[in-house]
Amino acid sequence: MKRSITRLLMAPSVVLLLAWMIVPLSMTIYFSTINYNLLYPGRNNFVGWMNFEFFVTDPGFWIAVSNTLILLISVLVITVVLGVALSALIDKPFFGRNIVRVLLISPFFIMPTVNALIWKNMMMNPVYGIFAWISNSLGLEPIDWLSDYPLMSIIIMVSWQWLPFAILVFVTALQSQDTEQKEAAQMDGANGWHIFRYLTVPHLARPIAVVVMIETIFLLAVFAEIYVSTGGGPGYDSTNLAYLIYNQALLQYDVGVASAGGLFAVLLANIVAFFLIRAVGKNLTV
Amino acid sequence: MAYLNITELQKHYDNYHALRGINLAIDEGEFIVFVGPSGCGKSTLLRTIAGLESSTGGTIELDGRDITELSSSKRDLAMVFQSYALYPHMSVADNLSFALRLAKEEQSVIDEKVKSVSASLQLDKLLERKPKELSGGQRQRVAIGRAIVRQPKVFLFDEPLSNLDAALRVQMRLELARLHKKLGTTMIYVTHDQVEAMTLADRVVILNAGQIEQVGTPLELYRSPNSRFVAEFIGTPKMNLIELDNVVREADTLHLKLLNASIDFPVARTHGPLPDKVVMGVRPEHMHIVEAGGDLIGKVELIEHLGSEAYTHIRLANGQTVIVKASARTTIKDGEEVHINVDREEVILFNENDRVFSVIAEDASHE
């Protein structure tokens, strides 16, 4: 009796969540198996695996997969390494620490589109960007970041966006580090580097795992930065999977192939998650 | 020249004067206990010696070397923390050998030392475990082992037993005493527990409000405190402090008047002028309940039976309460009227500034 009441009360939310997930997923699966191009309405016949074949054999496909992974891994490494270093630096009290903290966190409050616009127009523009100005004042040729190093530019933008998140998590974690342990290490003859290496880094293992997991979810689907700045180009040089799917669906009006791409992205996310959880997941249980 | 010399040590926090001129000389091999109520500066003093807090004045010399400005890693001291502060990600063996590894000792030397220390602390079966897989007592032993392995000049203990349960605390106290006997190294120990102070110390340093109140062997502090603070702090139950009605001097004798009683006290056992107001201090075991003809008369309010003895709380006619030790099998009942005798040899007199101006009987007879 009691059990059935619990289930009854839980049912609405469970049903809602399930519907929320099942409906789009099943529609995607359905679209991926039919011929569904907005330019040719009414010819929605069943085509089997053809959409998948089209998507996988697209000239941009493998470039997009590798770009997605390069972007993911580079941003993870940059944000975790810099995040740990910066949060360790601002852990000790110094004059103006609160202001420095706010400044370090603030990029996180900026929308991805605005972020990309700032970098595109104020920093990386070869004519009036700050990087160009620095190059010019040093007597060097300005670099056209977005055309010459498109993927690198995207990595810089996304890292700038996500570094604050890592810092936020690590700063909080560092505050829970036991000061007596550090003092004990000091008495044992440890210098600052030793304490960082043998106490702080192991202490941060779990927060690092959390940051890697959460960032991965978002980094697999980076879109706004690419859309606003490079538009996936030149060629496919800065196209990732999310952008390729958008390309299929809205530039070529082929919903069927786009749905197939979406399912492939789900597959890729699961593969990455599988390896990730095996690699960092054991830190979470310690 | 003492082994560890502390001269005029000062510690100011932003708006708090934690140490107000500490002077202390500690000999090599002594077991010194800092004791005092919370906030008296005992932990600050220990941490300043350790170099974890910087001093704002004065000097600390260890073995003829000025270490006042030295970083704690170069002072050659080892500390056992209240929380044990074991490194949570390292095994017991790694915890023990951490300092040696940092000092780049030979692996064979490290193994040798870890082995001998873990054997002497019964940790040899736990070497592969992580700190969180150990019990409180085991963690405590690892923390002590981590200090011993380095063979420092001085051991510092910051309330090391306060996180253990009562039974384990007694056991660890014994082990610490044994350890000090075996190693013979100078130890400084901070506690707020006077039983630990009395049982472990060669000399006890009683701190009060950032100053040293008195230094002495446990027995000295117990029998002849300098001040009311020390008298009240040492001893359970507390020393009875009885305000006297009047003190009359007659030739070589003081008559201590309280209610109907008059207790004779030789002038030779006092120093300085006779203050207007005198408080008499007597420990519970130096008062005795007698059949009749005692110095004081009072009514029993409460009897606490501890098994080996009993403490009777007795209210005197003027409303003051005294605690008198009685035998375990006392037949006195609540509400009964009893007579109390006072051991004259053990009476201590305080002046209005709460300082002691008398000496106990034995000392007087030696003069």
UniProtKB/TrEMBL annotation, chain A:
The chain crosses the membrane at residues 9-31, 61-90, 102-119, 151-174, 207-230, 250-277. It is a multi-pass membrane protein. It comes from Marinomonas ostreistagni. Gene3D superfamilies: MetI-like. It is found in: Cell membrane. Residues 65-276 form the ABC transmembrane type-1 domain. Belongs to the binding-protein-dependent transport system permease family. The keyword Transcription does not apply. This is Sugar ABC transporter permease. Its main location: membrane. It comes from the Bacteria. Keywords: Cell membrane, Membrane, Transmembrane, Transmembrane helix, Transport. InterPro entries: MetI-like (IPR000515), MetI-like_sf (IPR035906).
From TrEMBL, chain B:
One of its GO terms (molecular function) is ATP binding. Keywords: ATP-binding, Nucleotide-binding, Sugar transport, Transport. InterPro entries: AAA+_ATPase, ABC_transporter-like_ATP-bd, ABC_transporter-like_CS, ABC_transpr_MalK-like, ABC_transpr_MalK/UgpC-like, Mo/tungstate-bd_C_term_dom, NA-bd_OB-fold, P-loop_NTPase. Coiled coil: none annotated. CDD domains: ABC_MalK_N. Residues 4-234 form the ABC transporter domain. NCBIfam families: PRK11650.1 (NF008653). This is Sn-glycerol-3-phosphate ABC transporter ATP-binding protein UgpC. It comes from Marinomonas ostreistagni. The gene is ugpC.
